[in-house]
Structures are given as structure tokens and as C-alpha cells.
Amino acid sequence: MKAMNFARFRGLAGTALLLAVLSLTAAPARADWVSADAAIMGTAIHIELWQDSPQQGREAIAAVFDEMHRIDARMSTWKEDSILSDVNRRAATETVELDDEFVELIGRALAMSRMTGGAFDITYASVGRLYDYRAGSKPDDGHREAALDAVDYRYVELDSVARTVHYARQGVHIDLGGIAKGYAVENAAEILRNLGVRHAIVTAGGDSRIVGDRRGRPWTVGIRDPRNPNGLATRVPLQDEAVSTSGDYERFFEADGERFHHIIHPDTGRSADQVRSVTIIGADATETDALSTGVFVLGPQRGLELIEALEDFEAIIVDADGRMHYSSGLMPAQAAR
Ligand code: AMP
Ligand code: MG
User: What is the pLDDT of residues 87-140, one digit of tens each?
Assistant: First the structure.
């Protein structure tokens, strides 16, 4: 498929954005594309949208950033004062009350665990929290194996009627890092639609949610070459759907010739090593986010089997040797290189 000139488009739109955000009076005076970038939830946020008026563009961008800050403040495990940190401190010793949002999102995470046979598992954090990718440190084998005993999503006893959670054993920690960005861009899309925006893309790290088309043609999302930050493995045209990529290049360090990255195999407590990246396309970003992480753990064969068995999801996998695998629904039209 013909490549769009993204760099030029983003450059121009980026100028418009700065004016729109920083100086209310200098905003574009009519319908136009605007874009905005930010660093929220520990990741790069990018929004592009068609605004019918400058006021609509400003409101829309501010509302999306507010929503992401809200989610981060509640769900970050980096923030000691987040609700999730509080739950993790208490839930192994007491039954903790949750609000509707946590009941729903933890419930969906557990459903994704069942769907992926435990490959996606928010209790990965029981061992995953022992890695520090910035500092380049990892647990020794003894600590890793001890912590692994607390990795199993079935230890998360969620009561969605009483709206409580309890961890069935000591040492259990949950982390929503594999699903919360998708949830955030999904919420962002709903906010944009409610504000009357009909053409937009919202990206948080590897997760994007697309609203409508790009005014008469599809949006094009580039899938990164996992071993070349400036190269693309492929591009996919999309409209009104979600796309999530999980990659071993997002957070990692190398030691003893091995790559230690942020997607943890719940069976071993080590980085999953059968693939370099997994891209999932589907209707809902919360699901594509969790599935991209889960399929990453499952590897190319079992991962593609799962995707083929599910309705309405497609996958592009770059395996450990750099080979590309596509689910049947993508071949050949959408997966043109
Ligand atoms: P993503 O980039 O969407 O694949 O998300 C990666 C993030 O998911 C990591 O930074 C962790 O916070 C979390 N994570 C890592 N391993 C798992 C796993 N096996 N199941 C669920 N979440 C995980
Ligand atoms: Mg994911």
C-alpha cells in the first residue's frame, strides 16, 4: 500500500498543536487537523484529530490528557498513593473494597487470563516487580522462584457483587500495565466521540484507538521493526478499531548476552522469548492491549492458534528470528509490506 507522508503531516500539525495548547488566541481559526503529544502513564501519548472548530480541538485534547492523568493517578504501581498501590499493600491480609472502575477492569483482566490460558496474568507483578529495567537489575534465581509461587491469576479473588478483592496468598501483587494503556485510549475515543470528534487517533505507547477514518481514507499505523527504531516492519490501514503492539524493545536491558524485557512469562518469571513483537487488531483497545501481551507470552504458534479461534481479532507477529506471521484475516490485502 502507498505510504503516507507521516513525517511532514506530523510536523505541520505539531506546529498547530503547540499554538492551540499553549496560546489560546493563536489557535487555527477553522476546521483543521491538530495533534498533541505528552508523556503520561510513563509513556508517549500522541493524539491527532480533525476539529470542526478550534474550541472543539482544545477541549478534546485537554479532556483526553485529563483522563490519562486520572487513570495514571489511580492505577500506577509506581505511585505509592495510587489506589492500586493501596490494594496491593492490603489485599493479601484483608478484603479490600473497590469502586466500579476497578471491579470492571480487574474483572476484564481476569477474563483475558482465562482467554489466554494464563499467559496474560496481572499477578505476573509478584515476580515482575523484582526487575528494574532502568537500573538494569533482576532477581537472582532463588528470589525469582520464591516470588513465582505468588503468580497465578486465580489468587485474585474478585467479588463483583460485593465489589471487593482479596488475594488468596501472601506475596501476590497485581499490575495493570498490560491493559491500562488500552483502557485509557479506549476511554479517550469515547470522550472524543462525545465531544463530536469524528476522525482521530489516540496513541499511548504501543496502543492506539482510531475514531472514524482519516476523512475519506483509512488511517495508517506503522508497525515498528523490533530491531530498528527507525524502520517499519509493515503498515496497516485501519478505521474505527484498535491496534496494540507489545515489543521486547519497549523496556529492556541486556546482561550475560540475554535480553531482559518487560513482558514476563508467568510460568518462569523470566522475559518471554519466543517473539520480538506482537500486534493485535480488534474492536476494543482494552482487549487488544491485553491480548498483545498474552500472545507475546504464548509465542507465534499458540498465539496464532488463539487468534484464529477468536472472532474479530487479527495478529501480526515478528518471531525471535525476525520472521513475520499474519493471521488469516489479514492476508494479503492489509498486510502488504
Ligand atoms: P504491553 O506493552 O502492553 O505488552 O504491556 C507490557 C506491560 O504488561 C509490562 O510493562 C507489565 O506492566 C505488564 N506485563 C508483563 N508481563 C505480563 C503478563 N504476563 N501478563 C500481564 N501483564 C504483563
Ligand atoms: Mg499489551
Answer: 999 999 999 999 999 999 999 999 999 999 999 999 999 999 999 999 999 999
Compute how many other C-beta atoms are within 10 angstroms of the C-beta atom of residue 11: 11
| pLDDT, tens digit (0-9, with 9 covering 90-100), for 192-208 | 999 999 999 999 999 99
Residue nearest ligand 1's atom 15 by CA: 263
Residue 152 C-alpha from the chain's centroid: 21
Find out whether 75 and 84 touch, Cβ atoms under 8 Å: yes
- Give nearest CA residue, ligand 1 atom 8: 178
Work out the mean pLDDT of the chain and round it to a whole number.
91
Q: Which atom of ligand 1 is nearest to the CA of 207?
A: 3
Scan for cell 508467568, then name that residue.
Answer: 266
* Smallest-distance ligand from the CA of 294: 1
Give the CA-trace dihedral at 327, 332, 336, 337, to 10 degrees.
60
Interval 72-91: pLDDT, tens: 999 999 999 999 999 999 99
Ligand 2 centre and the CA of 263: distance in Å?
Answer: 9
